[in-house]
Amino acid sequence: MFRLALIGLFCANCLISSEAFAQAKKGDKKFAILDIKQVDEDFQYQGEYYGLIGADCSWCGECALGLQVVARGDGNFIASLYNGGLPGNGWDRSERQELSGKRQGDVLTLTDDNFQVEVKQGGIADVRDSHGHLLGQLTKYQRSSITLGAKPPKGATVLFDGSSVEHFKDGKITDEGLLSVGTELKKKYRSFRLHVEFRLPYMPYATGQARSNSGIYLQSRYEVQVLDSFGLEGVENECGGLYKQKRADVNMCFPPLSWQTYDIAFVAPKFDADGKKIKNAYITVLQNGVPIHQDYSIVAKTGGGKQEGPELFPIKLQDHSNPVRFRNIWIVDLSDQPDPTYCHPCQPLLCDRCGI
Protein backbone atom coordinates (compact mmCIF):
# COMPACT_ATOMS: atom_id res chain seq x y z
CA MET A 1 0.00 0.00 0.00
CA PHE A 2 3.05 2.23 -0.02
CA ARG A 3 5.90 3.21 -2.25
CA LEU A 4 9.07 2.46 -0.32
CA ALA A 5 12.43 4.12 -0.82
CA LEU A 6 15.68 3.15 0.85
CA ILE A 7 17.34 6.10 2.58
CA GLY A 8 21.01 6.62 1.84
CA LEU A 9 23.53 8.96 3.43
CA PHE A 10 22.06 12.30 4.45
CA CYS A 11 23.50 15.39 2.81
CA ALA A 12 25.83 17.04 5.30
CA ASN A 13 25.40 20.40 3.58
CA CYS A 14 21.71 20.32 4.45
CA LEU A 15 22.38 20.37 8.20
CA ILE A 16 23.20 22.88 10.86
CA SER A 17 24.79 21.68 14.06
CA SER A 18 22.53 20.62 16.92
CA GLU A 19 24.38 23.04 19.18
CA ALA A 20 23.74 26.02 16.92
CA PHE A 21 20.15 24.90 16.33
CA ALA A 22 19.52 24.51 20.05
CA GLN A 23 21.11 27.84 20.98
CA ALA A 24 18.90 29.65 18.51
CA LYS A 25 15.66 27.77 19.13
CA LYS A 26 15.82 26.06 22.54
CA GLY A 27 12.68 26.71 24.55
CA ASP A 28 10.78 28.15 21.60
CA LYS A 29 8.20 25.40 21.16
CA LYS A 30 6.48 27.28 18.36
CA PHE A 31 9.60 27.40 16.21
CA ALA A 32 9.06 25.34 13.06
CA ILE A 33 11.41 24.21 10.29
CA LEU A 34 9.86 24.15 6.81
CA ASP A 35 13.01 23.74 4.72
CA ILE A 36 14.95 20.47 4.93
CA LYS A 37 18.13 22.47 4.33
CA GLN A 38 17.64 24.08 7.73
CA VAL A 39 17.13 20.99 9.88
CA ASP A 40 19.48 20.09 12.72
CA GLU A 41 21.79 17.07 12.93
CA ASP A 42 19.17 15.06 14.82
CA PHE A 43 16.82 15.08 11.84
CA GLN A 44 18.77 12.46 9.90
CA TYR A 45 18.28 9.92 12.70
CA GLN A 46 14.54 10.50 12.93
CA GLY A 47 12.34 8.29 10.79
CA GLU A 48 11.27 4.71 10.11
CA TYR A 49 13.40 1.57 10.15
CA TYR A 50 12.57 -2.03 9.26
CA GLY A 51 14.35 -5.38 9.23
CA LEU A 52 14.65 -8.92 10.55
CA ILE A 53 16.32 -9.96 13.76
CA GLY A 54 17.65 -13.32 14.97
CA ALA A 55 15.48 -16.42 14.64
CA ASP A 56 16.00 -17.25 18.32
CA CYS A 57 14.11 -14.14 19.42
CA SER A 58 10.84 -15.25 21.01
CA TRP A 59 9.50 -11.72 21.58
CA CYS A 60 9.13 -10.70 17.95
CA GLY A 61 7.34 -13.75 16.53
CA GLU A 62 8.19 -13.67 12.83
CA CYS A 63 11.42 -11.82 13.68
CA ALA A 64 10.43 -8.71 11.76
CA LEU A 65 10.67 -5.39 13.55
CA GLY A 66 9.61 -1.86 12.76
CA LEU A 67 11.15 1.14 14.50
CA GLN A 68 10.00 4.76 14.56
CA VAL A 69 12.51 7.27 15.91
CA VAL A 70 11.34 10.72 17.04
CA ALA A 71 13.66 13.71 17.64
CA ARG A 72 12.88 15.76 20.75
CA GLY A 73 15.61 18.41 20.59
CA ASP A 74 19.17 18.71 21.93
CA GLY A 75 20.06 15.16 20.89
CA ASN A 76 17.19 13.62 22.85
CA PHE A 77 14.97 11.00 21.25
CA ILE A 78 12.07 8.70 21.91
CA ALA A 79 11.17 5.67 19.78
CA SER A 80 8.67 2.85 19.32
CA LEU A 81 9.39 -0.76 18.34
CA TYR A 82 6.66 -2.72 16.54
CA ASN A 83 6.33 -6.48 16.32
CA GLY A 84 6.02 -7.66 12.70
CA GLY A 85 6.85 -4.39 10.93
CA LEU A 86 5.73 -0.78 10.74
CA PRO A 87 2.16 0.49 11.29
CA GLY A 88 0.25 -0.30 8.13
CA ASN A 89 3.13 -2.48 6.88
CA GLY A 90 3.23 -5.65 8.93
CA TRP A 91 2.72 -4.49 12.52
CA ASP A 92 0.52 -7.09 14.24
CA ARG A 93 -1.10 -4.44 16.49
CA SER A 94 0.47 -5.92 19.62
CA GLU A 95 1.76 -3.57 22.29
CA ARG A 96 4.52 -1.32 21.02
CA GLN A 97 7.77 -1.05 22.96
CA GLU A 98 8.73 2.48 24.02
CA LEU A 99 12.41 3.43 24.08
CA SER A 100 14.31 6.62 24.81
CA GLY A 101 17.87 7.79 24.47
CA LYS A 102 20.37 10.41 23.45
CA ARG A 103 22.72 10.93 20.54
CA GLN A 104 26.42 11.05 21.33
CA GLY A 105 28.43 12.07 18.28
CA ASP A 106 27.37 9.95 15.31
CA VAL A 107 25.53 7.27 17.30
CA LEU A 108 22.06 7.42 18.83
CA THR A 109 21.51 4.85 21.58
CA LEU A 110 17.93 3.93 22.52
CA THR A 111 17.05 1.59 25.37
CA ASP A 112 14.25 -0.04 27.33
CA ASP A 113 14.17 -3.08 29.65
CA ASN A 114 14.48 -5.55 26.74
CA PHE A 115 16.41 -3.87 23.95
CA GLN A 116 19.25 -1.57 23.08
CA VAL A 117 19.15 0.01 19.64
CA GLU A 118 22.13 1.85 18.17
CA VAL A 119 21.14 4.11 15.27
CA LYS A 120 24.06 5.18 13.09
CA GLN A 121 24.62 7.62 10.28
CA GLY A 122 23.67 6.13 6.93
CA GLY A 123 20.37 4.66 8.05
CA ILE A 124 21.39 1.48 9.91
CA ALA A 125 20.17 0.50 13.38
CA ASP A 126 21.75 -2.37 15.37
CA VAL A 127 19.30 -4.18 17.65
CA ARG A 128 20.72 -5.85 20.75
CA ASP A 129 19.13 -7.69 23.68
CA SER A 130 19.44 -6.56 27.28
CA HIS A 131 22.76 -8.44 27.54
CA GLY A 132 24.25 -6.62 24.55
CA HIS A 133 24.03 -9.54 22.09
CA LEU A 134 23.47 -8.40 18.49
CA LEU A 135 20.09 -9.66 17.23
CA GLY A 136 20.12 -8.01 13.82
CA GLN A 137 19.96 -4.76 11.87
CA LEU A 138 17.18 -2.47 10.71
CA THR A 139 17.39 -0.24 7.65
CA LYS A 140 15.87 3.21 7.28
CA TYR A 141 13.06 3.64 4.76
CA GLN A 142 10.98 6.55 3.52
CA ARG A 143 7.39 5.47 2.94
CA SER A 144 5.08 7.25 0.53
CA SER A 145 1.28 7.06 0.44
CA ILE A 146 -0.20 5.25 -2.55
CA THR A 147 -2.71 8.10 -2.89
CA LEU A 148 -0.02 10.81 -2.99
CA GLY A 149 -0.53 12.83 -6.15
CA ALA A 150 -3.93 11.24 -6.78
CA LYS A 151 -5.67 12.77 -9.76
CA PRO A 152 -9.24 13.99 -9.38
CA PRO A 153 -11.81 11.60 -10.89
CA LYS A 154 -14.40 12.62 -13.42
CA GLY A 155 -16.85 15.09 -11.93
CA ALA A 156 -14.51 16.27 -9.19
CA THR A 157 -13.79 19.92 -8.45
CA VAL A 158 -10.12 20.83 -8.12
CA LEU A 159 -10.03 23.08 -5.07
CA PHE A 160 -6.30 23.77 -5.01
CA ASP A 161 -3.51 22.91 -7.45
CA GLY A 162 -1.09 25.71 -6.55
CA SER A 163 -2.31 28.17 -9.15
CA SER A 164 -5.26 29.85 -7.45
CA VAL A 165 -7.20 30.20 -4.19
CA GLU A 166 -10.46 31.06 -5.92
CA HIS A 167 -12.32 28.34 -3.98
CA PHE A 168 -11.10 29.56 -0.59
CA LYS A 169 -12.02 32.46 1.64
CA ASP A 170 -8.89 34.40 2.64
CA GLY A 171 -6.72 31.68 1.12
CA LYS A 172 -2.98 32.36 0.88
CA ILE A 173 -0.43 30.72 -1.43
CA THR A 174 3.14 30.43 -0.15
CA ASP A 175 6.26 31.08 -2.21
CA GLU A 176 6.42 27.30 -2.77
CA GLY A 177 2.95 27.31 -4.31
CA LEU A 178 1.35 25.65 -1.28
CA LEU A 179 -1.80 26.53 0.64
CA SER A 180 -1.49 27.96 4.15
CA VAL A 181 -3.72 27.19 7.12
CA GLY A 182 -6.47 29.52 8.28
CA THR A 183 -8.89 29.32 5.40
CA GLU A 184 -12.21 27.76 4.46
CA LEU A 185 -14.07 26.77 1.32
CA LYS A 186 -16.46 29.26 -0.18
CA LYS A 187 -18.87 26.56 -1.32
CA LYS A 188 -20.65 24.43 1.27
CA TYR A 189 -20.96 20.68 0.81
CA ARG A 190 -23.33 18.22 2.46
CA SER A 191 -21.81 14.84 1.58
CA PHE A 192 -18.57 14.44 -0.30
CA ARG A 193 -15.36 12.62 -1.07
CA LEU A 194 -12.30 14.76 -0.28
CA HIS A 195 -8.60 14.33 -1.08
CA VAL A 196 -6.07 16.47 0.82
CA GLU A 197 -2.27 16.35 0.95
CA PHE A 198 -0.50 17.97 3.88
CA ARG A 199 3.04 18.51 5.20
CA LEU A 200 3.94 18.99 8.86
CA PRO A 201 6.83 21.25 9.87
CA TYR A 202 9.74 19.90 11.92
CA MET A 203 9.26 21.08 15.54
CA PRO A 204 11.55 18.93 17.72
CA TYR A 205 11.13 21.00 20.89
CA ALA A 206 7.33 21.09 20.74
CA THR A 207 5.14 18.49 22.43
CA GLY A 208 1.48 17.55 22.50
CA GLN A 209 -0.95 19.94 20.85
CA ALA A 210 1.86 22.44 20.19
CA ARG A 211 3.55 20.10 17.71
CA SER A 212 2.49 20.98 14.14
CA ASN A 213 -1.19 21.39 14.93
CA SER A 214 -3.95 21.99 12.40
CA GLY A 215 -7.15 20.23 11.49
CA ILE A 216 -9.65 19.62 8.73
CA TYR A 217 -13.10 20.67 9.95
CA LEU A 218 -15.85 18.98 7.94
CA GLN A 219 -18.95 21.19 7.82
CA SER A 220 -17.04 23.27 10.42
CA ARG A 221 -18.31 20.64 12.91
CA TYR A 222 -16.22 17.49 12.74
CA GLU A 223 -12.44 17.74 13.01
CA VAL A 224 -10.04 15.22 11.53
CA GLN A 225 -6.97 16.17 13.54
CA VAL A 226 -3.69 17.18 11.89
CA LEU A 227 -0.71 16.92 14.25
CA ASP A 228 2.84 15.61 14.37
CA SER A 229 2.02 12.36 16.19
CA PHE A 230 4.71 10.34 14.43
CA GLY A 231 5.88 7.45 16.63
CA LEU A 232 3.30 8.10 19.35
CA GLU A 233 0.34 6.09 20.59
CA GLY A 234 -2.18 7.86 18.36
CA VAL A 235 -4.94 8.87 20.77
CA GLU A 236 -8.16 10.82 20.18
CA ASN A 237 -6.51 14.24 19.96
CA GLU A 238 -3.55 13.13 17.80
CA CYS A 239 -3.12 12.89 14.04
CA GLY A 240 -5.94 11.03 12.33
CA GLY A 241 -8.19 11.22 15.37
CA LEU A 242 -11.75 12.51 15.25
CA TYR A 243 -10.88 15.12 17.81
CA LYS A 244 -11.52 13.84 21.36
CA GLN A 245 -14.16 11.42 20.05
CA LYS A 246 -12.36 8.50 18.38
CA ARG A 247 -8.71 7.65 17.90
CA ALA A 248 -7.48 6.36 14.54
CA ASP A 249 -7.58 2.58 14.22
CA VAL A 250 -3.83 2.76 13.58
CA ASN A 251 -1.45 5.71 13.90
CA MET A 252 -0.40 6.24 10.28
CA CYS A 253 1.36 9.57 10.80
CA PHE A 254 4.60 9.87 8.81
CA PRO A 255 7.60 11.91 10.03
CA PRO A 256 7.48 15.72 9.71
CA LEU A 257 8.47 17.24 6.35
CA SER A 258 6.98 14.17 4.61
CA TRP A 259 3.97 14.69 2.37
CA GLN A 260 0.94 12.85 3.73
CA THR A 261 -2.58 12.19 2.50
CA TYR A 262 -6.12 12.14 3.82
CA ASP A 263 -8.83 10.57 1.69
CA ILE A 264 -12.12 11.30 3.41
CA ALA A 265 -15.62 10.09 2.60
CA PHE A 266 -18.27 11.98 4.54
CA VAL A 267 -22.01 11.31 4.63
CA ALA A 268 -23.95 14.12 6.27
CA PRO A 269 -26.30 13.57 9.22
CA LYS A 270 -30.04 13.74 8.65
CA PHE A 271 -32.58 15.91 10.46
CA ASP A 272 -36.39 15.91 10.54
CA ALA A 273 -38.59 18.91 9.79
CA ASP A 274 -38.21 20.15 13.35
CA GLY A 275 -34.40 20.06 13.15
CA LYS A 276 -34.02 16.94 15.31
CA LYS A 277 -31.21 14.63 14.26
CA ILE A 278 -32.54 11.29 13.07
CA LYS A 279 -29.31 9.84 11.66
CA ASN A 280 -25.67 10.40 12.55
CA ALA A 281 -23.01 11.50 10.10
CA TYR A 282 -20.78 8.71 8.79
CA ILE A 283 -17.13 8.90 7.87
CA THR A 284 -14.39 6.79 6.33
CA VAL A 285 -10.82 8.10 6.37
CA LEU A 286 -7.67 6.77 4.79
CA GLN A 287 -4.43 8.27 6.07
CA ASN A 288 -1.48 7.62 3.78
CA GLY A 289 -3.52 4.96 2.00
CA VAL A 290 -4.52 2.97 5.09
CA PRO A 291 -8.07 2.94 6.56
CA ILE A 292 -8.02 4.60 9.99
CA HIS A 293 -11.81 5.09 10.31
CA GLN A 294 -14.17 2.74 8.52
CA ASP A 295 -17.85 3.66 8.18
CA TYR A 296 -17.82 5.28 11.61
CA SER A 297 -20.97 6.89 13.00
CA ILE A 298 -20.05 10.33 14.37
CA VAL A 299 -22.09 10.75 17.53
CA ALA A 300 -21.72 14.53 17.91
CA LYS A 301 -19.67 17.53 16.88
CA THR A 302 -16.00 17.33 17.87
CA GLY A 303 -14.05 19.73 20.09
CA GLY A 304 -14.60 23.35 19.13
CA GLY A 305 -16.75 22.53 16.09
CA LYS A 306 -20.11 24.15 15.48
CA GLN A 307 -23.17 22.48 16.97
CA GLU A 308 -24.89 19.94 14.76
CA GLY A 309 -27.90 21.05 12.76
CA PRO A 310 -29.42 21.03 9.28
CA GLU A 311 -27.68 24.27 8.29
CA LEU A 312 -24.55 23.79 6.18
CA PHE A 313 -21.17 25.32 7.05
CA PRO A 314 -17.89 25.26 5.09
CA ILE A 315 -14.94 22.88 5.31
CA LYS A 316 -12.12 24.63 7.21
CA LEU A 317 -8.36 24.23 7.40
CA GLN A 318 -7.62 25.21 10.97
CA ASP A 319 -4.98 27.76 11.91
CA HIS A 320 -3.42 26.64 15.20
CA SER A 321 -0.36 28.92 14.86
CA ASN A 322 1.76 26.22 13.20
CA PRO A 323 2.78 26.42 9.50
CA VAL A 324 1.19 23.24 8.18
CA ARG A 325 0.99 23.28 4.37
CA PHE A 326 -1.50 21.77 1.91
CA ARG A 327 -1.57 20.86 -1.77
CA ASN A 328 -3.53 18.78 -4.32
CA ILE A 329 -6.98 19.25 -2.82
CA TRP A 330 -10.03 18.06 -4.72
CA ILE A 331 -13.59 17.11 -3.88
CA VAL A 332 -16.43 15.05 -5.34
CA ASP A 333 -19.81 16.48 -4.34
CA LEU A 334 -22.15 13.67 -3.21
CA SER A 335 -24.79 15.92 -1.68
CA ASP A 336 -27.52 14.87 -4.11
CA GLN A 337 -26.53 11.21 -4.23
CA PRO A 338 -28.11 8.33 -2.26
CA ASP A 339 -26.22 7.34 0.86
CA PRO A 340 -23.25 5.31 -0.42
CA THR A 341 -22.55 1.69 0.36
CA TYR A 342 -19.10 1.06 1.76
CA CYS A 343 -16.68 -1.36 0.17
CA HIS A 344 -15.27 -4.38 1.97
CA PRO A 345 -12.88 -3.03 4.66
CA CYS A 346 -10.01 -5.13 3.30
CA GLN A 347 -9.97 -3.08 0.11
CA PRO A 348 -7.14 -0.52 0.35
CA LEU A 349 -8.68 2.30 -1.65
CA LEU A 350 -11.88 4.25 -1.85
CA CYS A 351 -13.75 3.10 -4.94
CA ASP A 352 -15.74 4.81 -7.66
CA ARG A 353 -18.39 2.07 -7.66
CA CYS A 354 -19.51 3.10 -4.20
CA GLY A 355 -18.94 6.79 -4.76
CA ILE A 356 -16.71 6.75 -1.70
Automatic annotation (TrEMBL):
<dbReference type="Pfam" id="PF06439">
    <property type="entry name" value="3keto-disac_hyd"/>
</dbReference>
<keyword id="KW-0732">Signal</keyword>
<dbReference type="GO" id="GO:0016787">
    <property type="term" value="F:hydrolase activity"/>
</dbReference>
<protein>
    <recommendedName>
        <fullName>3-keto-alpha-glucoside-1,2-lyase/3-keto-2-hydroxy-glucal hydratase domain-containing protein</fullName>
    </recommendedName>
</protein>
<feature type="signal peptide">
    <location>
        <begin position="1"/>
        <end position="22"/>
    </location>
</feature>
<dbReference type="InterPro" id="IPR010496">
    <property type="entry name" value="AL/BT2_dom"/>
</dbReference>
<feature type="domain" description="3-keto-alpha-glucoside-1,2-lyase/3-keto-2-hydroxy-glucal hydratase">
    <location>
        <begin position="155"/>
        <end position="331"/>
    </location>
</feature>
